[in-house]
Design goal:
11% of the residues are buried. This protein has 71 residues and is an alpha+beta fold. It has helices at residues 32-41, 46-57, and strands at 8-12, 18-22, 25-30.
């Protein structure tokens, strides 16, 4: 499933934490300096936002995953 079909959502709390969710479920809470950097980068481009949120959750393809199972 791609990020376009099932995008990440985020919400910034009053104390600066970033709540990242997908499919209506909370995936991760980013806090501290990482949250501040993430907030500074978000909001410029939707595609970039999705990539940043995916990276923040650890749910990001790095290109080294195996595509299928060989018998």
């Amino acid at each position: 499933m791609s990020l376009q079909d099932d995008p990440f959502d985020h919400r910034v709390t009053k104390d600066g934490r970033v709540l990242v969710s997908r499919g209506g479920r909370l995936v991760v809470v980013v806090a501290g300096a990482k949250a501040a950097r993430l907030v500074a980068l978000l909001g410029q481009d939707e595609e970039q936002d999705q990539e940043l949120l995916a990276r923040a959750t650890g749910n990001y393809r790095r290109g080294n995953e195996k595509r299928g199972h060989r018998a």
